[in-house]
Amino acid sequence: MEEISPKRRVIAALKGEKIDRPPVTSIGGCEGTLIVDVQKAKGIYLPEAHKDSEKMAKLAIASQKLTGLESVRVPFDFVVEPEALGCKIKWPDKIDQELTILNHVYKTPDDLV
User: Fold this and answer.
1) Full DSSP string of 96-111
2) Cα separation, 11 vs 59, whole angstroms
3) Residue 57 class from Cβ within 10 Å (0-12 exposed, 13-18 middle, 19+ buried)?
4) Non-local CB neighbours of 98 within 8 Å, separated by 6+ positions
5) What's the number of domains the chain is made of?
6) From residue 28, how far is each of 19, 61, 77, 95 by CA, in Å?
7) Within a domain: residue 43?
8) 3-class SS at 75?
9) What are phi and psi of 39, to 5 degrees?
10) Measured between alpha carbons, how far is 93 from 5 in angstroms, rounded to an integer?
C-alpha cells in the first residue's frame, strides 16, 4: 500500500478503513505530549499555554513537529468541561505537572438537570 498523509491516516484509522500503518497519535489528554523538552524547545511553557490561545496553538504544533505524532490537539487536558460546569481547577506551578480537578460539583447525573 502507498504511504498516506498523517491526517488521512488518522481519519482512516478512526473510520476503520485500510491504512498503510497504524497512526502514532494521542487522541486522549495531550498534556503528555507536551514534555519539558518540547516546552523548552519552543520557549512556551505550561501552565501559561493553557490560558493563551496563541501559545496553546504554537505549543501544540511544536509538539507534533518535534515528536512526530500524527495529530495536533487542543486543549491539552480534559479539565475544560469540568471547569465550565463549576469545578475548581488547581493550576500547576511547575512545567511538568498536570492540571487537577479539586472538587466535584455534581454527585449524580440527576444533579445536572
Assistant:
1) T---EE---S-SSGGG
2) 22
3) middle
4) 31, 77, 92
5) 1
6) 21, 16, 8, 20
7) yes
8) coil
9) -60, -45
10) 38
Q: Which three cell numbers stand for residue 82?
A: 469540568
% of the chain exceeding 70 in pLDDT: 95
Q: Confirm whether 15 is domain-assigned.
A: yes
Classify residue 1: in a domain, yes or no: no
Question: CA of 46: how far to CAs of 43, 78, 109, in Å?
Answer: 10, 15, 32
With respect to residue 89, please indicate whether it lies within any of the assigned structural domains: yes
Q: Under a CB-based contact definition with an 8 Å cutoff, are residues 13 and 23 in contact?
A: yes
> What domain range includes position 73?
6-112
Q: In Å, what is the CA distance from 58 to each residue of 6, 19, 53, 111?
A: 19, 29, 9, 38
Q: What is the pLDDT of residues 5-56, one digit of tens each?
A: 888 998 999 999 999 999 987 766 656 678 899 999 999 998 888 889 999 9
What integer pLDDT is reported at residue 27 of this predicted model?
65
